[in-house]
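Something for you to look into today, if you have time. I want to see for myself how the chain folds. Leave the record below and I will have a look.
***
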Amino acid sequence: MEREYDIVARWVAREILPHENRVRVWLTRQWRGAVDVDDVLQEAYCRLSSLKSIEHIENPLAYFRRAAHAAAVDAVRHTNKNIVSMTEKDWFDVLDENPSVERQVEDAQELSRVGRVLASLSDTCRRVIELRRIEGLSQRETAERLGISENVVENNIVRGIRRVLAAMADQDAMTGEDADQQEDARIGKRRSQ
């Protein structure tokens, strides 16, 4: 029996990924630089990937837009700024395109992590993901460039994303277990004193 996250990952690859450019343009127009569109899209993907079920979703594009809009609103809220009361100086601060040092380090670590997971995939699967997700080629362009059918591209993107999500979830779980073990050891050490 197929696990729920496999179903959700396949649904995201099939129903959501093709709309990314439309939602990107929509976010750029709606938020006019007040949010980092890449961050908002990433957050929207995280939210969609963590869904327990997709059966209630009738219009994937509309759902993707709602998820992206909610992520954008949360991003603005995390800056502790009220959109309505923002001054011109505040807008200048929001429009600063330079990420913080902490953000740059986090991004570099996350990129390295994703790169290691991608390296573990087959060459075809890795190239499909790179061409579709990093270079932004269409499914047809990716198929032409690699000399494979569009069905093979679709199957590899689904399989690849599923493996990447599973590998990252496993890594997160292991990190969480390490933290739990360290906390248990710390508590145990304190009790023995």
Notes: Residues 103 and 109 are 10 Å apart (CA to CA). The mean pLDDT is 82. The two ends are 50 Å apart (CA to CA).
